[in-house]
Structure formats: C-alpha cells, structure tokens
C-alpha cells in the first residue's frame, strides 16, 4: 500500500464505538493506526453501546442497530429465510436511537415507538405517550425498510390502544396484552457532579495493567507539574476519565491501553461504560487543561 499524506490539523475527532466485545481488539488496533496517520493530533472518544454521547449521536441522522447476517438482513423478506424482528425507537429531542430488541412483552412500554417487522408486513406501534421525534423516526425506518424491499411489504401505523384490536401484531408475543400491563421504560440515570478529582499513572511493568494514584483533590484543580510526559496519565472527574498520552508513550502502549480500557476503568473505580476521552500534548487538550493549574 502506498503511503498516504494527510494534512495536519488539530481538530480531528475519532469516536471508537464498541457495539460487541469481540471487536474491541480490532477497534483498538485501527484507532491507534488512524491516530498515527493523523500525526497524533485527534481527540479520541470511547463510545459504548447503550451509552452513546450526544456528540456521537449528532453524527447520524438516525442511529439504527440491528443484528447482522445474510439470512436475517433487511433485504431478505422470503418466508423461508426471514426472521421476525422487533425494533425499539427511543430518545429525546433529535437524539433518537433505533435498536433491535427481543420479541417479548418485556421489551414493550407505553412511552416509545416499536416496529414489528414480519417480512412482508410491518407494524409501527406508536405507544400512548411516545414523542413526535420518535414517531417521525419510526416512520422513517418503516419507509426505508419498505423501500429496500422494492416497496412490496405493507407498512401499517397503529396508535395507542388501536394495537389491542390487531391480533397479528400480538401473535409473536403469545397473545394480546393489556397496555396497563406493559412495563415502564427505564428512567435515564442522572449523573451526580462531584468536586473530587483524581490523577493516576498507568503502569504495565509486569505485563498487567496497573493504575497508581498520584494525587486527589476535592474542589481544587490537579497539579500540572505532576504530569509525566513519558507515561500515560488519567484524570478522573464527574465519573469521566480523561487519558493523557505522553509524548514518550509507544504505539504498543497506546494499543494496550485502548484494548484494556474496561479493565483500567474497573481499576480506578469507574463503570465499564464510563465516558472516556483521550488526548495528546500536540492535539486539542482544552478539556484536559480545565482540570489542572
């Protein structure tokens, strides 16, 4: 492959989206190589399935996540190969996500939009309390699937209690269920802000990931003088981790860090889906600089 020359800029962003765990190694490898191609200037964001940031969602007119495979693809409506799907359309404002969910009553609720895809017939169930953005997003998905199948399937919209009269919709669920029996959708967790800030140094001297606490402050900025340029440092604030890649960190160390991010988060007491931002000295460090003095 010929070398590719890329103009150096300081405002590149690389979101690494982890949808399935076994792709994490490939994602880590490709992210490090892309970062090198862009001269190490991008800010990297780790995005986890089900906990996508507003920034990541803004890249898509509509984010849709479905199971793959030739036999179950959207363009294969034949009865002998087609697998019935249930799509869940949810979100607030313009941050709407479409995701395939199990065909079970527990997947339904009275707040969102659902599309039951039977192959040659698709039902869009607009629940009693669904919002206008979810309804429009659901209609867009419905129209897209119908178009991919040469406009042969029938698309049917059903609102609120109208769904109780359609036995075909309920057949995959084992029979009609009263809407009052549907589960409530999970409430989004509110992030509590904390004044505590911590600074860690990442080490892997014996081949395993370790994080040594360098400094902890409550209501004060961390000390910039404690940053070691030949190391990988982590600043933690408000349940978010900011990884600082020192100029002396090797490509192997950066790959190992990307691959072991979940393990690192556990070590420093953060959940596996915590927000992670990665910066370098020569890139945009404004978010990192806010935590130091």
Automatic annotation (TrEMBL):
GO cellular component: actin cytoskeleton; cytoplasm
GO molecular function terms listed in the Swiss-Prot or TrEMBL record: actin filament binding
Segments crossing the lipid bilayer: 12-32
Organism: Timspurckia oligopyrenoides
Keyword field contains Transmembrane: yes
Record's keyword terms, sorted: Membrane, Transmembrane, Transmembrane helix
Domain Gelsolin-like: 96-137
GO BP annotation list: actin polymerization or depolymerization
Protein name per Swiss-Prot or TrEMBL: Gelsolin-like domain-containing protein
Top-level taxon of origin: Eukaryota
Lineage of origin: Eukaryota, Rhodophyta, Bangiophyceae, Porphyridiales, Porphyridiaceae
